[in-house]
Amino acid sequence: MKKQGIKLSVATSCNKDMCEAVLKNNGLYDYFDAFAYCEEEGVDKNTSDIYIKAAEKMQLVPEKCIVFEDIAKAAENAAKAGMKVIGMADNENAKEAVFLEKICVDVVHNFDEVQEKIVKYI
Asked: Mean pLDDT, the chain, as a whole number?
């Protein structure tokens, strides 16, 4: 996606130090253009605020953003912000799948499906 000029952001409730360590350790950190951490922004995923902050940091309007989310309530809030939401329903959160399918424009079950979904909704 990065090679195709698609801007990428992280909007997370995860601790900043832990998130950055994991991304750097796995060689992924430099793929992202912006980071929005709930703890730094003073928000949480119970509202649309963190998603709006991430869009702002990429200088995009929410309607131009696609969010990948694995938690139904967070997916709902990203959708309320005007973003297209693709749910991630894998073995780790199988119980969320039913709710994600109701909220999201699409659902993927593994990362191999992500690229085709991005192309579909760009």
From this structure: 93
> How much is the pTM?
0.89
Radius of gyration for the alpha carbons in the chain, expressed in angstroms and rounded: 14
* Spatial separation of the C-alpha atoms in residues 28 and 45, rounded to whole Å: 23
C-alpha–C-alpha distance, residues 34 and 59, integer Å: 10
| Planar angle of CA 63, 83, 70, nearest 5 degrees | 160
Contact at 8 Å (CB) between 88 and 105? no
CATH for 7-121? Answer: 3.40.50.1000
Chain segment 30-69, per-residue pLDDT in tens:
999 999 999 999 998 999 999 999 999 999 999 999 999 9
C-alpha to C-alpha distance for 35 and 52, rounded to whole angstroms: 12
End-to-end CA distance of the chain: 11
Neighbours of 116 (CB within 10 A): 10
